[in-house]
Amino acid sequence: MAAIDKTYVNRKELIEAIDWCRTVNVCTLDNGYKFIPLNFIYAYNDLDENYNPVNDQEEYILWNTPQWFDRWLWLNCPLDFVRERLKYQYDEDALKEFANYVYKDPNDNIQLGRQHYTFLKKPNFKWWKWYANNARRLNPYPGNCKQTTIEMVITLPGDKFDLTNELQYNHVVNRWYSDYGFMPVDRKDYIWQMYHKRIPTKKSIIRQLRKWYFPSGTIVNVRSIRLKIAWEILVK
Questions:
Q1: I need a labelling partner for 230 at 20 to 30 A (CA). Which of 45, 57, 70, 143 fits?
Q2: pLDDT in tens, the chain (236 residues)
Q3: Cα(131)–Cα(127) distance, rounded to whole angstroms?
Q4: Nearest 5°: phi and psi at 203?
Q5: Hey, is 204 helix, strand or coil?
Q6: SS3 (DSSP) at 221
Q7: Domain segments of the chain: what residues?
């Protein structure tokens, strides 16, 4: 199953795709995520004020599509050349999976009861106290952030060395999804400084985790990229 691939078209097909995208305008996925299909075309083409291609070429890149957008196209796009391209990219079973997929909110299970958290590892207090007092002042996010960025990484139950077992975060809908799911994701980590004013403590980490639901056995790492100081939490 392909994850991301470019679609090449001629000028007539490009204009047809632009016209169709203008008719659908803003679209909403099952999880509430909004997007504009025309933006995928803008990413690879110079268009004038009337949405006509500026450059006259024999071949154009229509767009480079992630899997979640391919699924949406398969269910909604009537253009034959787009559908034929999807049939080339995906086998019959994958296209059936697109059609039969039913979205389930990862946080729906929160109402079943509060989760419990066991701290398997805590950072050295001396280092973390220094970090809390100095990190944001010396190197605040987002400017020159890599040295002192604090990231939260979620690993599902299973082989901790299996990178496909890590969830990815979508900040727009505040949800974590599988890397190979049918919902859009932003990145593999949750950057703490983007959403919180203070350096994480045990209490603040638990408060944040209670806003999400994770399967029992999930491992949560909250760590400094530079100093490798980590909280490691087991979700029960």
A1: 143
A2: 344 578 999 999 999 999 999 999 999 999 999 999 999 999 999 999 989 999 889 999 999 999 999 999 999 999 999 999 999 999 999 999 999 999 988 888 776 667 899 999 988 767 676 666 665 555 445 444 555 678 899 988 865 545 457 889 999 899 998 866 789 988 888 988 788 877 788 999 999 999 999 988 999 999 877 767 789 999 98
A3: 6
A4: -65, -40
A5: helix
A6: strand
A7: 5-100, 108-235
